[in-house]
Amino acid sequence: MSVSRRPAVWVLLSVSLLPTAAGLAAALWYGLDSAALARVLATPGVGRSIATSVWTGSLATLIALVLAHLIVAMAASGQWRGRLNALMVPLLAMPHLAIGIGLALVLAPSGLLMRLVSPWATGYALPPDWLIVNDPAGLSLIAGLVLKETCFLVMALGVALAQVPSSQLTLQTATLGYGPLKGWFVAVAPALQRQIRLPLAAVFVFGITNVEMAIPLGPGLPPTFSVLLWRWFTDPDPLINAQAYAGTLVLLGVCGVALLLAAVSARVGRVMWTLFARSGRRRTAEKPLRRVLGTAVAAGWLLGALAIVAIGFRALSGPWRFPDLVPDRLSLGTLEELAMSLTGVGGTTLALALATALAGLAFVVPAAEHCRQSATARQRIGACLFLPLLLPQMTFLFGVQVFLIRLAIDGSFIAVLWSHLIFTLPYLWGILASARAAIEPRYEQVAVTLGVSKLSAWCRITAPLLARSGLTALALAVSVSVALFLPTLFAGAGRFATAATEAAAAAGSGNLRLASGYAVLLAVLPLAAFAVALSGGQVLFRNRRGVPR
Amino acid sequence: MSALELQDVELEIDGRALFAPISVRVAPGAVTSIVGDSGSGKSSLLNFLCGILPPAIRASGQVRLGEQDVTRQSPQSRRLGRLFQDPLLFPHLDVAGNVLFGLRARLSRQARRLRVADALASVGLDGMGDRDPATLSGGQQARVALLRVLLSEPRALLLDEPFSALDDDNRARVRELVFSEARKLGLPTLLVTHDAGDVAAAGGDVVELTAAARGGNDA
Question: I need a surface site. Which of A253, B22, B69, B216 has the fewest CB within 10 A?
Answer without folding.
Answer: B216
